Amino acid sequence: MESGIGGSTMDRDPTNAYENVTANRDTRDSSGSAQHSRRRVYRLVAVGFGLLCVLQVILNVSLRLVHNLNEGGDQLVCEKDVRKICPQDWIIQSGCSCYFISLATKNWTESRQDCVDRGADLVIINSREEQALIKGLGHQTWMGLTDREVEGTWRWVDGKPLTTSYWTGPGEPNGRAKENCAEIIGVHNDPILAWNDVPCDFERRWICERVQSPPRCLDSALTRP
What is the pTM of this model? Predict the structure, then answer.
């Protein structure tokens, strides 16, 4: 009996109970501190990631502004330069090219020679926008496209191969009767498709082009000096 009572008394020793409570509290404090530290790290990571995203947006906007400013400056310089090199009676596109539209008619070779004599060449179509512009300038006019050197291999007057075309339909170019030179048919119903191949000795009006800068400038409205 005494042994049992003594054992029970030892189990209820206040010192042991205090130590157990203290140990449990220390464990909870340590666990809570670790969780708090992890949450703090997560918050710091989230804040850092957010700052990186903001900096990325700022960088993208800044680069875009610089690009637009440079492009706008180049455009203004280009337009200023093209006005210097083009006569007053030439049509100036808001960009880096100007165009001469003849009133007389000549064959393709004579038409090109006239352009060369003017310090230009027959027009080369570099974009859909330029095609729409040129189509509106005249009906049945020569442009700088031919396959006279190699039948079926169309090249521009600067020697570059044809990559994008605007023939009037799937049957063109048909190459009938040695049709080795290309003309613009302005009255064709399609707003863009207007090319036709015809014999080079036909007489047509023609369009000369002077280019001051790369074709990227050819994307704005038509203006006059």
Answer: 0.61
